[in-house]
Amino acid sequence: MQKFSLHTHTVGFDGNNSEEEMVRRAEELGWNKIGFSNHFIVHEKIEEAPMYKYAKIGGYNNIYSSSFDEAVAKFESHYKRIDDLQSKTKIKILKGMEVDFFAGEEWRKGFEKAIAYLKPDYLIGSAHFVEQDGILFNSHDVKKSSKIEQQKLITRYWQNVRATANSGLFDFLAHLDLIKKVGLGQEDLWAEEEKKTIEAIKNANVMVEINTSSYKQGDEPYPSRRIMKMIADERVKVLFSDDAHDVKRLGADFDRAYKTAKECGIKNFYSDDGSRNFFKLIIADRQNS
Ligand SMILES: [Zn+2]
Ligand SMILES: [Zn+2]
Question: What domains appear along the chain, each with residue ranges and CATH number?
Answer without folding.
Answer: 19-288 (3.20.20.140)
